[in-house]
Amino acid sequence: RAVLRDQPNAVPVMRALARAHAQNKEPSLAEETLRNALQINSKDADAKLDLAQLLAQSGKPEQARSLLEQLVEELPDNVNVRAALFRVQATQKDLRAALATAADIKQSHPDIALGYYLVGTIEEASKHLDIAADNYEHALRVQPKTPEPLTALIRLDVARKQNKQALERLDKVIAADADNAVAR
User: How much is the average pLDDT of 73-87?
Assistant: First the structure.
């Protein structure tokens, strides 16, 4: 707050103050601070993303989704914005929209595991277990050290009572990377 007195239009300082308010369990003050930051610079994508995430955490998913959809239009290649939109859509149980967002990530960034993993989570929730497993496996091929797809595959193997396959999968990962704490 003292820095803001000297630099009242410093959006990065306002974002930091908003984070402090959020950590102190003062979401209304955090929201007010971020909205003030956006009044100063309505184009600040980081402040918009911070506000959207705060709104989602504060039980205002509709407002968060609207803001994130705007951000996706402004920053179509930003994976973090699309991932945040996916989380809000999934929280709202809008699986069709969440799947579309995950597929967009997968298509626009085929070199990262996130899109494949997110598609897998929606397919798993929709009980399309083979499609989910294929996406999780593809995520691991793209980024072998990413823990979430491995964990998801093991969970699927166990749920399908394929414990032997789960153990073989883990042994293979450990053989390739003996320091993989998730596999161990």
Answer: 95
| pTM for the model | 0.86
**CA–CA gap between residue 21 and residue 33 (Å, rounded):** 9
Residue range 66-77: mean pLDDT, rounded:
95
Q: Tokens for 21, please give them.
A: 């308010």
Interatomic CA distance for residues 150 and 55, integer angstroms = 31
C-alpha closest to that of 14 among 67, 80, 35: 35
Q: Which residues contact 89 (CB under 8 A, 6 or more apart)?
A: 65, 95, 97, 98, 101
Mean residue pLDDT of the chain comes to 93
Backbone angles phi, psi at 13, to 5 degrees: -65, -40
Alpha helices in the chain, H assignment, sequence order? 2-6, 11-23, 27-40, 45-57, 61-74, 79-91, 95-108, 114-125, 129-142, 147-159, 163-176
For residue 15, the one-letter residue type is R
